[in-house]
Amino acid sequence: MKEKAILLGLILIAAVALTACSANNRVTVEGPTVDNTTEQADTGVLTEVFIDESQYGQTIEVAAGCLVTITLESNATTGFKWELSEPVDEGMLALIKSEYVLNNETNQDKPVAGAGSTEVWTFETLTPGDATISMAYSRPWEGGEKGVKTFALTIRSLSGRAP
Length: 163
What we know:
By secondary structure, the chain is mainly beta. It has one helix at residues 2-20; strands spanning 28-29, 37-39, 46-51, 59-63, 67-74, 81-84, 93-101, 117-125, 129-138, 149-158.
C-alpha cells in the first residue's frame, strides 16, 4: 500500500513537470499566461522562454534544462549597460551568454549615436528550485550613474529536465 502511494506521488510530480514545459506551449506566470516560448519539434517539450521588461517582478515556471532568454532595451552609445545587480544562484542557473544586439532599423554594423538597441541575456536552468535574476541599468565606471532602471524576476525550475 505504501509503495502505491509513493508511486502515485512520483507520477503526480512528473505530470506537473511535464505540464510546465509541454503541450500548450505556454509558460505559467503569476498573472496572465505568456505565449513566448519555443518547443523542441520532435518532443513538444519547451526548450526556451523569452522574457522582456513587461515581465518585471513575475515568477516564470519552467522545467530544469530550459533556456531563459531576457531581452532588455539598451543604448550602448550613452555608456549605460545592463549588469547583474546580485549574483544568481549558480547551482540552479547558468549564464550562457549576454550580448548587445544592434537594432535592425539602423542597418549598421556598429552602434549609431543615440540609437537604442537591446541586450540579450540567456540563462539555463540546471536544477529544480527558485532563483532570482536582478539586474540594473548603469554606467559601470567609477562615479557613473547606477541603477537608473532595474529588472528582476524569479525563475521557478520544476523537476523534470527538458531533453
